[in-house]
Design a protein that fits this description.
The chain is mainly beta. Helices cover 0% and strands 58% of the residues.
């Protein structure tokens, strides 16, 4: 299984960005797909996940600003990020997990500037 993330870049504070992650290989609908991030000097943290049945959870820091969505037919998971702040600057990683299987994308950098 390989995950390919895209959509990072430089964004002004208050702006929006959209990340996309496409999975190739044996990904099925029972996988939980999600986005994590690692901010400078911090450990990797959960941003949002979407489990089978479209059960969605968000970190408190992004709830109301970010929206995660998945398309099972296309094996992809997107993250729409609005009202970005400087604290959202991070490398964002997509993840697919099922039981003890966990796969990571390569990470995409989002830099929010003032």
């Amino acid at each position: 299984v390989q995950l390919q993330a895209s959509g990072g870049g430089l964004v002004q504070a208050g702006g929006s960005a959209r990340l996309s992650c496409v999975a190739s290989g044996s990904i099925h609908n029972l996988y939980t797909l999600g986005w994590f991030r690692q901010r400078p000097g911090k450990s990797r943290e959960l941003v949002a996940t979407v489990a089978p049945g479209n059960i969605i959870s968000y970190a408190d820091s992004v709830r109301g600003r970010f929206i995660i969505s998945r398309d099972n037919a296309k094996n992809n998971v997107d993250l729409q990020m609005d009202t970005l702040s400087l604290e959202d600057t991070a490398v964002y990683y997509c993840n697919a997990r099922y039981t003890f299987h966990s796969f990571w994308g390569q990470g995409t950098l989002v830099t929010v500037s003032s």
